[in-house]
Specification:
The protein is an all-alpha fold. It is built from nine helices and two strands; from the N terminus they run ααααββααααα. The protein is about 70% helix and about 5% strand. Helix 3 runs parallel beside helix 9 and helix 4 runs antiparallel to helix 9. The structure holds retinal. The site of retinal (RET) has 19 residues, from helix 5, helix 6, helix 7, helix 8 and helix 9.
Length: about 280
């Protein structure tokens, strides 16, 4: 869009400048569908997210305890956000072309799937909320994990969209990793202790391991992919994220919700989000 003929065109132009793509959405769309591997990495997840939502709603049909219901709602939000996220990617809405300022791909234009980082800011807090509730943790620890997790995603988005300096891309990456370390601390140190006191240690520890192992994959693939040092191509990186998502979201949610549906009593009486009784408070 060369000429701003009215206010709305100017706004679209400004957004284009902000995302520094200079490429229209339909051009991005064509680039996505020119690569069947890349396009399938989006659509497989749209389908899996849709099926997961239906399955989880069905699994929760008889759950009546409010805390067990809260775990169900938080967990069902994860595939719901995922479905929207992948539709955004599949339509080209949340994908841009960015010019790499340095590294192996210096000066080259690569596709950035920045919508992923944006939607993680909505889905990952729900995963942590569900895990914190399962562990019977208190609102301070749940708040801490969620706030640092959101900060991790937003600074990851900043890393992906910074095109002025290669060093600053990695600076944002470092900041994001630091926030990730706080989330890991809560997951690996605080919540296991709470879960032991609450009596949900077995299922909590299984989900904790699944979460920690898979979540580590995201920064690793970011660093190896086109947005990092560039040893992996865009389609391979996108498939890596899509595969990690299958485990970190749908498999995770299925295991958690099967447990909660079978034993809703084990999560009743946990600390309330607003404070209240705090059996696992120390
Ligand atoms: C980024 C890059 C910057 C450094 C770090 C990252 C971590 C991302 C993680 C994402 C987890 C996403 C999940 C999504 C499910 O919906 C942003 C890749 C540390 C841990 C579980």
């Amino acid at each position: 869009m060369q000429t701003a003929v009215d206010g709305s065109t100017a706004t679209v132009d400004q957004l284009g400048i902000l995302l520094q793509n200079g490429v229209s959405q339909s051009e991005v769309f064509d680039m996505i569908y020119a690569d069947a591997v890349l396009a399938s990495s989006f659509w497989v997840n749209v389908a899996l997210a849709g099926l997961s939502i239906l399955l989880f709603v069905y699994m929760g049909r008889n759950v009546e305890d409010p805390r067990a219901q809260l775990i169900f709602v938080a967990t069902i939000v994860v595939p719901a956000v995922s479905l929207s996220s992948y539709l955004g990617l599949a339509s080209g809405l949340t994908v841009s072309v960015v010019e790499m300022p340095g590294g192996a791909l210096a000066g080259e234009e690569v596709l950035s799937m920045w919508g992923r980082y944006l939607t993680w800011t909505l889905s990952t807090p729900m995963i942590l909320l569900a895990l914190g509730l399962l562990a019977g943790s208190n609102s301070t620890k749940i708040f801490t994990a969620i706030v640092f997790d959101v900060a991790m995603c937003v600074t990851g988005l900043a890393a992906a969209l910074t095109t002025s300096s290669y060093a600053l891309r990695w600076a944002w990456y470092g900041v994001s990793c630091t926030f990730f370390a706080v989330v890991l601390y809560v997951l690996l140190v605080e919540w296991p202790r709470d879960a032991t006191e609450t009596g949900t240690a077995e299922i909590f520890n299984t989900l904790k391991l699944l979460t920690v192992i898979l979540w580590f994959g995201y920064p690793i693939f970011w660093a190896l992919g086109a947005e990092g040092i560039g040893v992996l191509g865009v389609a391979v990186t996108s498939w890596a994220y899509s595969a990690l998502d299958v485990g970190a979201k749908y498999v995770f949610a299925y295991l958690l919700l099967s447990y909660v549906a079978d034993e809703p009593a084990s999560v009743t009486g946990l600390t309330s989000i607003a404070g209240g009784e705090t059996p696992a408070d120390d």
